[in-house]
């Protein structure tokens, strides 16, 4: 029996996903002196939450994009997958200081491909194909903070852990326990914990032990529908999950982190951290929390809705990602990639965002994932149902990339 993620878009002869109603990607970032406060009106999350991403907390500087025109220039088209490409992950600490950039892509063809940028030509080449471990779609992939391990989550109900030994990848552990499809995997900031989630409505937290052993320390059962994505806070052991039940849940552990519980559910209506969520209700939502309160240990600061970006998309939004410069990228079912930046004309009671550019026909089919490089500020990767991965550079309209 095929999963709901594999079937549903039957019109026009395309195999389509059965997409719920608020697919959410969230990113979080520490930005000092952010304008805004709590939203006074309830937020209607009319669709299922599907993705979470936290915005970078490393000395992010807000860029001024006023009075300058930009374009998203295609640098390279990466081909090799024989089915749709679902997810992308840039390897940490690559693409800087002479270390070639490395990108992982996961696909419906049951494989993960490792792409590496040539130091001589600047082009990306496939250096490894991770195969013969999963027997169904590989839905998600994530590097450990050290870049030594790569976790891959599959519809075959398993999560595989791959070790990089000088460019040779070996599957060193297979995590089992989910009843069916595993849809997302995420490492915490220290690499000591791994989170997985799936169609069985559960979130699993795994402790990383010596010798590539993993132990499940908690199974979180708060969601009432498929859990589409999990994402850790970039500096604290706080976990976010999003689900087809139209909610984002915030989880925290007690003491030794063996006792995890839900501290907040975002389905309703501060400066500090921000995250972004996207959905097939055609909106992008910005959320905020008080990072100073969380870091001080004075409880868990609640997340509040700051603003909604609507009217920019006319088909389901599958993915959003926040760059270190504060640029939000989105990938959607209209085959386009859009970029948003914070407007300097925002109201005093909250931030506002404007469309920086829209790249029409970025792919031939749905754009499933967009991922900014963690090192190159203006480098973006996108993945699509057309089976390709594309590398983009954000440039001024004159064609010169801005630093």
From TrEMBL:
Keyword Repeat: yes
Matches recorded under InterPro entries: CIAO1/Cia1, WD40/YVTN_repeat-like_dom_sf, WD40_PAC1, WD40_repeat_CS, WD40_repeat_dom_sf, WD40_rpt
WD repeat residue numbers: 78-116, 131-163, 175-208, 220-251, 360-394
Alphabetic keyword roster: Repeat, WD repeat
Keyword Repeat: yes
Domain of life, source organism: Eukaryota
Biological role stated in the UniProt entry: Essential component of the cytosolic iron-sulfur (Fe/S) protein assembly machinery. Required for the maturation of extramitochondrial Fe/S proteins.
Similarity annotation: Belongs to the WD repeat CIA1 family.
HAMAP family (UniProt xref): ciao1
Record-given protein name: Probable cytosolic iron-sulfur protein assembly protein CIAO1 homolog
């Amino acid at each position: 029996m095929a999963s709901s993620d594999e079937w549903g878009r039957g019109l026009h002869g395309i195999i389509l996903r059965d997409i719920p109603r608020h697919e959410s990607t969230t990113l979080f970032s520490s930005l000092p002196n952010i304008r805004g406060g709590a939203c006074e009106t309830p937020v209607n999350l009319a669709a299922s939450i599907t993705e979470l991403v936290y915005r970078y907390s490393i000395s992010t500087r807000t860029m001024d994009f006023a009075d300058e025109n930009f374009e998203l220039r295609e640098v390279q088209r990466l081909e090799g997958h024989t089915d749709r490409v679902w997810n992308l992950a840039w390897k940490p600490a690559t693409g800087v200081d002479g270390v070639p950039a490395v990108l992982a892509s996961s696909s419906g063809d049951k494989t993960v491909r490792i792409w590496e940028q040539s130091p001589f030509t600047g082009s990306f080449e496939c250096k490894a194909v991770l195969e013969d471990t999963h027997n169904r779609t590989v839905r998600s992939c994530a590097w450990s903070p050290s870049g030594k391990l790569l976790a891959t989550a599959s519809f075959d109900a398993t999560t595989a852990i791959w070790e990089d030994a000088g460019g040779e990848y070996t599957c060193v552990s297979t995590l089992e326990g989910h009843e069916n499809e595993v849809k997302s995997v995420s490492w915490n900031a220290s690499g000591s914990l791994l989170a997985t989630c799936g169609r069985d409505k559960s979130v699993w937290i795994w402790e990383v032990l010596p010798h590539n052993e993993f132990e499940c320390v908690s199974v979180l059962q708060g969601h009432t529908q498929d859990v589409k994505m999990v994402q850790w806070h970039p500096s604290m052991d706080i976990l976010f999950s999003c689900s087809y039940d139209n909610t984002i849940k915030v989880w925290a552990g007690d003491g030794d982190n063996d006792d995890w519980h839900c501290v907040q559910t975002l389905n309703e209506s501060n400066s500090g951290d921000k995250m972004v969520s996207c959905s097939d209700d055609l909106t992008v939502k910005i959320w905020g929390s008080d990072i100073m309160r969380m870091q001080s240990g004075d409880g868990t600061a609640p997340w509040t809705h700051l603003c909604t970006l609507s009217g920019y998309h006319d088909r389901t939004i599958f993915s959003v990602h926040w760059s270190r410069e504060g640029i939000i990228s989105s990938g959607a079912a209209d085959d386009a990639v859009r970029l948003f930046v914070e407007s300097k004309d925002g109201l005093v009671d909250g931030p506002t965002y404007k469309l920086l550019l829209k790249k029409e026909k970025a792919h031939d089919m749905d754009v499933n994932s967009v991922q900014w490089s963690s090192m190159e500020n203006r480098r973006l990767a996108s993945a699509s149902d057309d089976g390709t991965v594309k590398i983009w550079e954000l440039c001024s309209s004159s064609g010169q990339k801005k630093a």
